[in-house]
């Protein structure tokens, strides 16, 4: 039973303890985390912080003038005898006696020894309650790590906080010091269990997984410095791999003595004062054989396109990868990084600003790729039941089409094409022989004022990982990939463009006809093979661009001429037109009935956007509003809410994999033959093999 007044930390603790997976990755905000720390570590006695736990409990004790807190965990997987708890209670209480700042307290030798002992016990005794065989969790993981010839041991933060919540908090607030102790423990345990493994790997690293605090890149501030953070984004740039100096030894040129090792940091260069053997002050040379290096790589992580608010540029943060984390991500991939948010000395910033300024970077501890690229919309069990119930509706296809851009009147054909592009198809890989893309490309060609740009903006807000660009404002390298020279290393690096950033999403290109021919040619490969090949500045590689392309263009002369063929109406070459699976022609035809209904829909939209009660009393306004909505058909119960439509899209792309039947094969073959025969004698677009792949 919890008794907690004025705090919502009860929900946080319950979430961690019960492991209720509501969100993929299960995270909390930093505000909740700070409230949890406040409950566990605050030294202020007031009514708000009074709480009592019976059974599985957290107990807080306060001693003035110093602060002391004690946390006892009696969870099912961490059982101890009562006598042992009483004997160790006083010793643990002294260890939790925090004096001064937490980061200074964890650097003490006695605290290091205490963390060393507790973490050793955790690795060697922890049993996962979900493991029916009762195996020791991390002994099993160590054996798997050794079998795979790896040097990183992954520690689940949620499991660790169950057993040692106090040390887990110290890990989040002072990760540098605590991780050093944890890696010493892991190294000793691994080499004790597998003595010969030290001949393969001299160092074992601890990787923290399932860290519950999730921050956005734009939220990182000074308060996060030297804390453990977890952020997500898209990799836009990736440097090469360099050997970074870690421990250096010097040879005395006079007596031949070896000096060191000296630990090299990123702020200053190691300066040797004098030789302890001959007292000489030099000269010294680096002992190349005994000097220790480590792998170093730098990534640029940018906010995901779907998370950036309108009107603001996406922000980015540099991520440092060390040791075995190198080459774990490439440009265009969406990843999550758990690491230490720290500052990095940059002389160029100091020179530019005229006063000391430190650049901030994230030293990665754990990197994982987002396999679920649609995790922005979390699906609960109720959502899945609602979606499955909707899927059984025989009119679900019509309802989805009506729900696409409901504020735009008419254009059912365009809405159908956009719905097909947003749902996408099934990617085919025929036994490694050749790959057929599962994305549908759409071209909207029509007269001005037919809501083409509005459709693209709607997809940008509704679709998953949608990137919007315009023809005149986009160049070939802006759409594909650019090559930049790093100012520090003087090395050429790749930076992904719009098509790379939209990987497994949708790339929206407005004013497609205004692009230069050279720029349009650059996206041929991306639309057909869904990859971008780069051969510049000595870099020969290929980037993934698995995305649908929805483009909008105007006809030649501004208006579509029905007396001419499609190719004569658009200033696009046949190769680029053939790469679009769906072509939508929108003509502004004068029709009094249709024009009146369209005008009524526009007027009703402006009428509903008025402030309530601005020109009339509220009652009269609400009555007239209901009448106008009914006349416009906007109260149609068949229209799905936009949130439900997003969830439906997410569920369909993740869980629905359509298959062919023999009858479908015969129908598709006949339809393709008829279309090709008709196109040969008509004024339409020539039908090619690409189009039958689009139909599939």
From TrEMBL:
GO molecular function: 3'-5' DNA helicase activity; ATP binding; hydrolase activity; single-stranded DNA binding; single-stranded DNA helicase activity; transferase activity; zinc ion binding
Leading EC class: hydrolase
GO annotations of cellular component type: MCM complex; THO complex
Compartments reported by the entry: Nucleus
Domain MCM C-terminal AAA(+) ATPase: 396-602
An individual GO BP term: double-strand break repair via break-induced replication
Protein's UniProt keywords contain Cell membrane: no
Signal peptide (UniProt feature, chain positions): none
Catalytic activity: ATP + H2O = ADP + phosphate + H(+)
Enzyme Commission code(s) on record: 3.6.4.12
Region feature Disordered, mapped onto this chain: 609-633
InterPro entries the UniProt entry points to: MCM (IPR031327), MCM2 (IPR008045), MCM_CS (IPR018525), MCM_dom (IPR001208), MCM_lid (IPR041562), MCM_OB (IPR033762), NA-bd_OB-fold (IPR012340), P-loop_NTPase (IPR027417)
Keyword DNA-binding recorded: yes
Main subcellular localisation: nucleus
Keywords assigned: ATP-binding, Cell cycle, DNA replication, DNA-binding, Helicase, Hydrolase, Metal-binding, Nucleotide-binding, Nucleus, Zinc, Zinc-finger
Alphabetical list of PANTHER family matching this protein: DNA REPLICATION LICENSING FACTOR MCM FAMILY MEMBER, DNA REPLICATION LICENSING FACTOR MCM2
Family per similarity comment: Belongs to the PC-esterase family. TBL subfamily. Belongs to the MCM family.
Name of protein: DNA replication licensing factor MCM2
């Amino acid at each position: 039973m919890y008794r907690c007044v004025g705090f919502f930390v009860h929900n946080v603790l319950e979430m961690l303890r019960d492991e209720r997976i509501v969100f993929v990755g299960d995270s909390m905000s930093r505000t909740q985390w700070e409230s949890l720390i406040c409950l566990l570590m605050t030294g202020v006695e007031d009514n708000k912080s009074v709480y009592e736990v019976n059974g599985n409990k957290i107990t807080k004790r306060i001693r003035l003038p110093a602060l002391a807190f004690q946390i006892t965990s009696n969870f099912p997987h961490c059982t101890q005898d009562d006598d042992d708890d009483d004997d160790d209670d006083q010793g643990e209480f002294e260890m939790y006696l925090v004096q001064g700042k937490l980061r200074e307290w964890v650097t003490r030798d006695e605290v290091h020894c205490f963390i060393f002992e507790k973490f050793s016990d955790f690795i060697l005794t922890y049993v996962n309650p979900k493991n029916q065989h009762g195996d020791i969790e991390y002994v099993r993981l160590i054996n798997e790590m050794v079998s795979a010839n790896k040097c990183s041991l992954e520690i689940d933060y949620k499991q660790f906080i169950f057993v040692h919540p106090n040390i887990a908090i110290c890990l989040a607030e002072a990760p540098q010091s605590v991780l050093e102790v944890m890696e010493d423990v892991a190294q000793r345990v691994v080499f004790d269990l597998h003595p010969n493994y030290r001949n393969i790997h001299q160092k074992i690293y601890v990787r923290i997984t399932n860290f519950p605090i999730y921050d956005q890149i734009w939220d990182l501030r000074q308060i996060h410095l030297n804390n453990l953070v977890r952020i997500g984004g898209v990799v836009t740039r990736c440097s090469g791999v360099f050997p970074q100096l870690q421990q250096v030894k010097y040879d005395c040129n006079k007596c031949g003595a070896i000096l060191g090792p000296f630990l090299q940091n990123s702020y200053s260069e190691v300066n040797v004062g004098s030789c302890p053997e001959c007292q000489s002050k030099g000269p010294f040379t680096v002992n190349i054989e005994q000097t220790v290096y480590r792998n170093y790589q730098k990534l640029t992580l940018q906010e995901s396109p779907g998370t950036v608010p309108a009107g603001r540029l996406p922000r980015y943060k540099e991520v440092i990868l060390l040791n075995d984390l190198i080459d774990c991500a490439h440009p265009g991939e969406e990843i999550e990084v758990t690491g230490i948010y720290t500052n990095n000395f940059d002389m160029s910033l100091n020179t530019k600003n005229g006063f000391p300024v430190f650049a901030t970077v994230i030293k990665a501890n754990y990197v994982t790729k987002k396999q679920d690229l649609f995790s922005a919309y979390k699906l609960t069990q109720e959502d899945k039941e609602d979606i499955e119930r909707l899927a059984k509706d025989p009119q679900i296809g019509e309802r989805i089409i009506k729900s696409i851009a409901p504020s735009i009147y008419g254009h059912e054909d365009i809405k159908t094409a956009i719905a097909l592009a947003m749902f996408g198809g099934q990617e085919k890989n025929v036994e490694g022989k050749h790959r057929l893309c599962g994305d549908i490309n759409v071209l909207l060609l029509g007269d001005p004022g037919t809501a083409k740009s509005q459709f693209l903006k709607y997809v940008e807000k509704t679709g998953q990982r949608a990137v919007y660009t315009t023809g005149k404002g986009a160049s070939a390298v802006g759409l594909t990939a650019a090559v930049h020279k790093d100012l520090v290393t003087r090395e050429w690096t790749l930076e992904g463009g719009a098509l790379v950033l939209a990987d497994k999403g949708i790339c929206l290109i407005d004013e497609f006809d205004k692009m230069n021919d050279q720029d349009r040619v650059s996206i041929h490969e991306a639309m057909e093979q869904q990859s971008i090949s780069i051969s510049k500045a000595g870099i020969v590689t290929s980037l993934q661009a698995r995305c649908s392309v929805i483009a909008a263009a105007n006809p030649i002369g501004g208006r579509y001429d029905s007396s001419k063929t499609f190719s004569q109406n658009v200033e696009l070459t046949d190769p680029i037109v053939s790469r679009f699976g769906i072509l939508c022609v929108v003509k502004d035809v004068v029709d009094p009935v249709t024009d009146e209904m369209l005008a009524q829909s526009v007027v009703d939209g402006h009428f509903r956007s008025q402030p309530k009660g601005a020109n009339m009393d509220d009652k009269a306004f609400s009555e007239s509003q209901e009448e106008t909505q009914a006349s416009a058909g906007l109260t149609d119960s068949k229209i799905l809410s936009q949130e439900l439509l997003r969830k439906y899209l997410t569920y369909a792309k993740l869980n629905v994999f359509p298959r062919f039947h023999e009858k479908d094969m015969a129908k598709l073959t006949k339809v393709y033959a008829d279309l090709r025969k008709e196109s040969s004698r008509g004024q339409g677009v020539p039908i090619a093999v690409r189009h039958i792949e689009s139909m599939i």
